[in-house]
Amino acid sequence: MRLSILSLALLSGLLLSVTPPAEAAGKSRAASKASDYKEIPALNWGVVSAGFVEVFKLRNREIESAEPNRYFPGSVAFALGRLDESGHYLMLKCSSADSCGGNRDALEDRLVYATLLQVVRTPKAPKDQLYNASTWELTPLGNKYIEKLRKRYPDLPTRLGRLIRAAFASQ
Question: What is the pTM of this model?
Answer without folding.
Answer: 0.76
